Amino acid sequence: MEYKLITSTRDLETFCSASSNVDWLALDTEFIREKTFYPSLCLIQIASEQELVCIDTLAISNLSSLKKLLYQPSITKIFHSASQDLEIFVNLFDAVPTPMFDTQIAASLLGYGEQVSYAQLVSEICNIELDKSLSRTNWERRPLTSKELKYAVDDVKYLAEIYQSLKTKLGENGRSHWADFECNNLASIDKYIINTDKVWKTVKGAGKLNSNQLNILKQLAKWREQQAMTENKPRRWILSDKILRNLAIEQPTDINAFSSLEIITEEHIPYAETLILEINEALKIPEYDWPTTSTIGPLNSAQRKLVKLAQSFVRERAEQLNIAPSLLATRSVVEKLIRGKRELDILSSWKKDLIGDELVALIEANDIS
């Protein structure tokens, strides 16, 4: 099937109208993100039973017809390793295109490995070797060469065949509901909406600060996130984590104190007044509303031994099922279970009967902490 390059709103509307009654669409995106906060979308590749297209999103400003198509609940949207693509569509249209099927998730549940690549699946299922020599293409450059466009559409050209193969195997192995759960979990919009009140938790070194300092850090990290969104620049281009931590520790409340900090350079001066205002606002917050560092201490010796015992059990069960152990329970999940936490997917999803209940029983039977 030959691909078509779509560069006009009219051609996009024609394609979307013709595709409105299909059962599935295979999708991929090409984007650039090195110099922006939000990914800069350059291309959307779509395959259906009838057509194979590459949509030039730099040439088309009106994507309303595409939005209508992608959000039809009767159409399954097929991706491979979907999270970045879903983030892009949430940024574009404020919602996740569902229902969706992720071939990487499906393959991981069938013994292909946890992070199996699209090229590997194309090789194993379609018996075709893909050319990956253009993985570092500048997708913003125009015009794109025919070789680059072929490379882009190849990322969806074989997705449907892979989808059908994996879907059949999931059904034969009684694992369709496993994939449904994991794909629905990946499609939760909460994964793609940034909570600016919580971004301080991702600042490197935040765990070393006391509550007073964390209060300042929370205020500044929220400001940096909003500023990065406004300017559409990477966070580090606004302020680095190191500077955020330093400001949270030193807490300068006037321009002289701010400018005297050794870590401050000329590029930070335009933000000085705003940062000082943010610090002063944070200092007004009552102590009972300050964030706190984690009060969970390290596991004791008996608990660490129990982790090893539990992980050994997880590995054995994963080997029996021919899937990666982390798909059943990561070390973090094991530790949470040992600490008594029970509101976890492993006890409320397809994993519950396979391993969750037995893992909890094992932990409780051997817990001497």
Summary, kept brief:
With 369 residues, the chain is α/β, with parallel strands linked by helices.
The CATH topology annotation of the largest domain reads as: Nucleotidyltransferase, domain 5
CATH superfamily of the largest domain: Ribonuclease H-like superfamily/Ribonuclease H
Low-confidence stretches: none
- The average pLDDT score comes to 95
Give the overall shape: flat
Percentage of residues in helical conformation: 40-55%
CATH architecture type of the largest domain: 2-Layer Sandwich
Radius of gyration, taken over Cα atoms and rounded to an integer in Å = 25 Å
CATH class of the largest domain: Alpha Beta
Count of helical regions: 17
Structural class: alpha/beta
Major sheet: arrangement of strands = 1-4-3-2-5-6
Number of DSSP strands? 6
Q: What separation lies between the terminal Cα atoms?
A: 63 Å
Proportion of beta-strand residues: 5-15%
